[in-house]
Amino acid sequence: MSEHAGGPLTTSHPLATALAEAGCSHAALARRVNGLAARQGLVMHYDKASVTRWIQGKHPRGRAPEFIAAALSERLNRPISPFALGFTTEPEPPVGTRSLLYREDVAATLHTLAELGSLDISRRSLLGPVPFVAATAADTQRHWLLWLGELDDSAVPHLAAAADQGPVEAVHFMIWMFDEMDNRHGGSQVRSAIIHYLTSEVIPMLQQHRLPERQRTQLFGAAAKLAATAGWCSYDSAEYGLAQRYMTQALRLCQQGGDQVLGGQICAGLSHLATNLGHHSEGVAFARMGLVTAKHAGSPLGLMRLYLMAARGPAARNDPKNTATALRAAESAWESSRGPTHESPWVRYLDHHYLEAEAAHCFRDLGDAKQAEAHATASVHANGERARRKGISQAVLATAHLQQNRLDQAVDAAETALAWLGGGVVHSERSVQALRDFRARLEPHRSEPVVQHFDRQARSALGAA
Q: CATH 1.10.260 occupies which residues in the chain?
């Protein structure tokens, strides 16, 4: 591969400094760059003389700077960018922009995710505001569906296999623990721990390339699950732009792990996020993408969740026909499941009570208060330990009472949900938002003493109306 001049000759090129720090020979770097390129379907024939020319100021063409940076990131056990090695004339776009992109190069994805997590936890002020950007959804969907279309179904395990012995098994245990904390207490409680574990433990393992190929593939799947959970917890903390970015990067890692069930669930998370932010078309598109992903993956529970997400968009647009079609499909998927032990580990938490909770939202949005009340009541009674789901369903139940002009019952139900928040049982901004939605619906009744009393009680937890 040819090269072109780029910069003055120097003996203190940043690449030379990085090579010395990593203890990496010119020949070893060239071999690794060629190998990384081959994994991306590219043919490169660099040798030790090529590395010497880079240090003397020659600039490698094409994507070679990405592979050089990835190779040295492995050696140094920390992310390092092509710009830091002197290979670009302009700095990379800020991580808030890069993390919206679905990159072909998985090494770049790992680097971006590590940088995003580091800034998110320790230097939030440097990260700056990161809004949800609906316009990037189509690009993410295009990349994922192109990969899916090229997939040989016979070569990819449909259900996530149990983790092999070694570091992958330990990561799976940590995922289980984080999921339990999130489901019981809300994402705000566990978010920083997930991001720290992902960026300080899991991503460095993937960058080092020291695991057997089967374990490495499994580890990509586990990293995708962690990144998606970080996104879900960000969503639960009202960090919607961060949620989108973590989930987008999670989908790229999931491609590398080849797990279609997990891919469908990440699509479901993106669908939920988009729909709740009012981007109903994008929400439905992500749900449909997830259904295409998981339809042959042998996971009825995963399909149930995706059909429920496909129902939420039409319900928010007051489209009862398409809502009913999707809800019937979700119910059918639930009935066809043989139980959690026959499902992927990523969807075993899903049950009929999850269906009840999401159906309650759909009927609330359609204005079918009796159905909303029935489903929300069932969800509240069933989800004793799942505090977030129980709290949100309680707020939906309050709205269903209000829609039936039962003001006292509505406020009583909302006060119960408020007590759970005030008691520290739930640390979830989505639970708070559900109660704020109910409070906004009380506006026509502001003169009623029971509403004024609720407003005074709610002010500390929900803020001013």
A: 3-92
CB 92 within 8 A of CB 79: no
Got the DSSP string for 74-138? HHHTS---TGGGT--SSPPPPHHHHTTS--S-HHHHHHHHHHHHHHHHH-HHHH------GGGHH
* pLDDT, tens only, 271-304: 999 999 999 999 999 999 999 999 989 999 999 9
Cβ neighbours of residue 240 closer than 8 Å, sequence gap 6 or more: 131, 132, 234, 273, 277
d(CA 361, CA 376): 8
CA distance 251 to 284: 17
Cβ burial, residue 404 (10 Å; 0-12/13-18/19+): middle
Task: List pLDDT tens digits, range 328-362.
Answer: 999 999 999 999 999 999 999 999 999 999 999 99
Fold classified for 3-92 = 434 Repressor (Amino-terminal Domain) (1.10.260)
DSSP of 3-70, one letter per residue? EEE-S---SS-HHHHHHHHHT--HHHHHHHHHHHHHHTT------HHHHHHHHTTEEE-TTHHHHHHH
pLDDT surpassing 60 at residue 89? no
Encoding tokens for residue 252?
């790229």
- Kindly report the pTM of this predicted structure: 0.80
Tell me how far CA of residue 411 lies from CA of 17, 399, 405, 419, in angstroms: 66, 9, 11, 12
pLDDT at 258: 93
CA 455 to chain centre: 34
The mean per-residue pLDDT over the stretch 72-96 comes to: 80
What are the tens digits of pLDDT across the range 44-73?
A: 889 999 999 999 888 888 888 888 988 898
Rg (CA), the chain: 25
pLDDT band at 421 (very low <50, low <70, confident <90, very high): confident
Average model confidence (pLDDT) across the chain = 88
- The terminus-to-terminus CA distance of the chain in angstroms comes to 64
CA distance 346 to 334: 16
d(CA 372, CA 351): 18
In sequence order, which residues have a C-beta less than 8 Å from that of residue 2 and are 6 or more positions away? 61
pLDDT at 11 over 80: no
Half-sphere exposure of 61 (CA within 13 A, CB side): 9
Please calculate the CA angle 442-444-445 and round it to the nearest 5 degrees: 65
